[in-house]
Amino acid sequence: MRRVGRGCLAFERPPALLGRAAVGGKREAQGPLGADLDKTFGDTSLGMDTWEQAEAQLQKEAVALALARAGLGPEDLDLIFAGDLLNQCISSTFGVMGYQVPFLGQYGACSTMAQALLLAALAVESGAARQAAAVTSSHFCSAERQFRLPLEYGGQRSPTAQWTATAAGCAVVGLSGRVKVRGGLVGKIVDLGVKDPANMGAAMAPAAADSIARYLRDTGTSPGDYDGIFTGDLGAVGTALLYQLLAEEGVHLQRVHDDCGLLLYDRQRQDVHAGGSGCGCSAAVLCGHLLKRMEQGELGDILFCATGALMSPTSQQQGQSIPGVCHVVHLTAG
Amino acid sequence: MRRVGRGCLAFERPPALLGRAAVGGKREAQGPLGADLDKTFGDTSLGMDTWEQAEAQLQKEAVALALARAGLGPEDLDLIFAGDLLNQCISSTFGVMGYQVPFLGQYGACSTMAQALLLAALAVESGAARQAAAVTSSHFCSAERQFRLPLEYGGQRSPTAQWTATAAGCAVVGLSGRVKVRGGLVGKIVDLGVKDPANMGAAMAPAAADSIARYLRDTGTSPGDYDGIFTGDLGAVGTALLYQLLAEEGVHLQRVHDDCGLLLYDRQRQDVHAGGSGCGCSAAVLCGHLLKRMEQGELGDILFCATGALMSPTSQQQGQSIPGVCHVVHLTAG
C-alpha cells in the first residue's frame, strides 16, 4: 500500500477480482444491460413476504453467484463488507448472515459499493483476509416505502427524480486474477446546500467532481489515460452538473465518461426519469457489465466512481441539506 | 498484519492511540464515570434545534477533543471511520462533514466503535493513512424517537430494557504512542432467534460469546491473560447470559470481565434498568474511562468487545429476529 495523497491509495500488490455477480429485477432485466446480469427475477418479491426480505435475498443471491464464479465457498471468505440503503442496513444483515462470514457493515448511501470494494481490497493486500467480498443492494419497493411514499399512493415523480434499482452486485477479492484493484480514493463529504430529495443527482455531482478532480491530481493522470470513467449514480441531471463543475477546473471527461444510472436503463423507453440510482445500481453495473467488459478485453483501465447522497427522511424533514460523497476505485485488466 | 484466524488479526507494527476523547449528556455526567468524560452537556439539546443535530454535535465535539489531545488538526487525518444508530447514519454525516476528512461510514449498531477502531488501525498499519480516526455516537432522545416511542408518550420501560447513552467517543490512531492496538477479531452475525426489542442484551450475548470464545481460541489465550475483558453493551441480562454461554464452552471470564453498559451508569440510582447501550456507550467508556486507566498504568492489556443488535423497527414489525454481532479489539499499554 502506498499513500498517494489524502485518502488516495495505490496498492503495491494489487488485489484481484476472483469472482463477481450481478442480479436484478424485472425492469433491470428489460434494460440495456439485462443480458449482463447473472440472474434476474420477474417477480420482484423473490417469493418473500416483504420487500425488505426480497432485497436481502438479492444480496444472498449475488454472493452465491460471485462465489460460484470464483470457485469458492463462503468458508473461503475471511471478511464480508456489505451495505444498503435501508434503515440500520437490514438487507445486508439478513442477506448475508446465513453465510457466517465475519461481517463489517458499510454505509455510504449509493457510493457503498466503491467503499466496500476498496476496503475489501485493503483487507486482502494487508493480509487481514485471504479473500474478502464486497456486496451491496437496493430495491425499488423497499426504498420507496422508506424514503418516499407508499407504492399504493401512486405519487407522481418529478423529471429530476431517479429510479432506485432493484439489484445487487457482489465482488470477491483475492490475490491473483486478471482484473486488479490498483488503488482509489476515499471521498470527503461535500455539501453545496442542495435540499431537493427528488434531485439526488444535483446533490451528488459536487462530491463526484471533487473526488474525480482530486484523484486525477493526486495520481498525475488525466481522463484520457483511462478507457472509461464511470460515475454511479448521477443520472442525467447530475451528469450535466458534473461536466460543468469539472470544466471549471479544466477537466473534461465527456469522451470517456458514462454513468451507471444512465447505463442500467433505457431512459426513454423505461420511464425512469433522470436515470437509475440505489446501492444496487452501480454495484450491478460494475459487477454485471463493466467487469465483464474488462474480462473480455473491451476495457483495460477504468475508474469506478460511486456516489452517495448522505441524507435520511428525518434530516430532510428537519430542513437539512443533502451532502454527497464519492469514492473512486481504479481497476485494470492485465 | 498477520492473519491469526478467520477475521482474527494481529498487527505486526501495532498502531497506537494518539488521542482520545469522550463526551456525554447530563445523566452520563452524573454517573460513576462522569469525571472521566472530557466534556458533558447539562442541556442535552446542545443548543441545537433537533435531537438528531444534537447527536451530530456530540460527534463533532468528540473529534475536536481527541484531535486536541493528540496535538493534531483535522487536516492531519487521512481517513475517518464514523458510525451511529440513526437511519442512514446521519449523525455521523452531519457531525464530521465540517472537518473535511475522507469519510467511511460504518454500521455495526452498538458494536460500531470496535469495528471503526479496527479498520482505522488497519488503515494506519497498512500505510493507507498516516493518521485515522474512529468515532461513534448515540443520543437517548434521537434513539427513542426512532426505535421506540415519542418521548412525550412517557412509555413504561421493561426491566430488561437498556438506556441509550447520550454520548460519543473518538480515538485517533497513528503509528507511535503508548497504548497500542495489537489486533482483534471481526465478528460473525449470530442469531439465536431472540425477538424482544426490549431485551437487546439477550439478543447480543450469543454474538459476544461466539466472538470472545473464537478470539481466545485463535490466539491461544485465556481470560486470565488479560487485565480486563470489556463487553459493550450487554447490560445485566446479557452479561448473565454471556457467562452461561461461555461456561458451556469451559470459558470463565467473570474475574476479569465488566460491561460498558454496566459501567457508565449506577443502575440502582439512575433508573437505567438493565444498563446502558447505544453506539456512544461503549465508545465513551472506552475513550473516556478504559483508555485513561491504560494511560495511567492501571490496565495493561485488555479486550474491548463491543456488541451490536442488527435490527430496525421495520425488521421488528415484520416479525424478524434480532441478530447480534460482536467485534473484539486487543489493546495494550506499553
Explain this structure to me?
With 334 residues, chain A is α/β, with parallel strands linked by helices. Helix content of chain A is 35%, strand content 25%. Chain A contains 11 helices and 15 strands. Chain A has helices at 26-29, 51-70, 90-96, 112-126, 140-147, 200-219, 235-248, 260-263, 267-270, 279-295, 313-317; strands at 2-5, 8-10, 16-24, 39-40, 79-84, 103-107, 132-138, 163-164, 167-174, 179-185, 228-232, 257-259, 276-277, 301-309, 324-333. In chain A, the strands form 3 sheets. In chain A, strands 1-2-10-15-14-11-12 form a 7-stranded mixed beta sheet, sandwiched between helices. A 6-stranded mixed beta sheet of chain A has the order 4-3-9-7-5-6, sandwiched between helices. In chain A, strands 8-13 form a two-stranded parallel sheet. In chain A, helix 1 links the parallel strand 3 and strand 4. In chain A, helix 2 (51-70) crosses helix 3 (90-96) and helix 6 (200-219) crosses helix 7 (235-248). Chain A starts with a strand and ends with a strand. At the A-B interface, helix 3, strand 6, helix 4 and helix 11 of A face helix 3, strand 6, helix 4 and helix 11 of B.
